[in-house]
Amino acid sequence: GAVVSQHPSWVICKSGTSVKIECRSLDFQATTMFWYRQFPKQSLMLMATSNEGSKATYEQGVEKDKFLINHASLTLSTLTVTSAHPEDSSFYICSARDPSPTNEKLFFGSGTQLSVL
Amino acid sequence: KQEVTQIPAALSVPEGENLVLNCSFTDSAIYNLQWFRQDPGKGLTSLLLIQSSQREQTSGRLNASLDKSSGRSTLYIAASQPGDSATYLCAVNTGNQFYFGTGTSLTVIP
Fold first, then answer.
1. Is A51 helix (H, G, I), strand (E, B) or coil?
2. How many CB atoms lie within 10 A of CB A35?
């Protein structure tokens, strides 16, 4: 099956620093990728939809200047948490949509646990 | 707006038992529905995908059904094993967006 690679798996940083998370589709081209945030024992909260070659679409309440998304190629999307603060600590997961018109399946990365001190 | 609910929120069963997880959604205009498994601190692993035109899908001990008109899907796990312990999420694809349920946390007791 399709594979989505997410890196890093975990990161610890000081308050005020920026953190970049990468999401790669390894064996298919993903024109659309999704970024989610997940709090402990809760479901996934969609943050933004990343579209290759264009600006990301952010969900209501998500600060676009805080969470910068870049989807410069068909296999890579990045999420940068700028000037991170302790309240940004969370589990971040990316997913990519299988481009097959008859499938429309979602594949997920392994997630990134961000801890901001 | 599509709302997806999963019942129960948590379930604990002895090993070997058959079990059913439920997923309900408010808008029947869906493209497909996907069941995922999530282990603690990990990403989601796709288990089964059911297209809107299908009634069920099977993979090994797993069987997922879909009743689009009533807005329901079930995930049936046969002969449960401790390794099945995880959180199970369903996701509804409307074509434009994916909506996730709140998840069912399953514990299979040896």
1. strand
2. 27
The C-alpha of A51 sits at a distance from chain B's nearest C-alpha, in angstroms, of 13
CA distance B7 to chain A (A): 13
Chain B: closest CA distance from residue A34 (Å): 10
> Which tokens in the block code for residue A92?
């971040």
A39 falls in which pLDDT band (50, 70, 90)? confident
Residue A38: φ, ψ to 5°: -135, 125
Is B93's Cβ below 8 Å from some Cβ in A? yes
User: What is the rounded CA–CA span in Å between residue B36 and residue B30?
Assistant: 17
Q: Give me chain B's average pLDDT, please.
A: 94
Angle at Cα A102 formed by Cα B53 and Cα A77, nearest 5°? Answer: 130
Q: Reduced to 3 states, what is the DSSP secondary structure of residue B54?
A: coil
CA distance B88 to B96: 23
HSE (CB half, 13 Å, CA atoms) of A83?
4
3-class secondary-structure state, position B68: coil
Residue reference for tokens 């600590």: A89
Asked if B46 and A95 come within 8 Å (Cβ–Cβ), the reply is: no
Establish if A41 touches chain B: CB-CB under 8 angstroms. Answer: yes
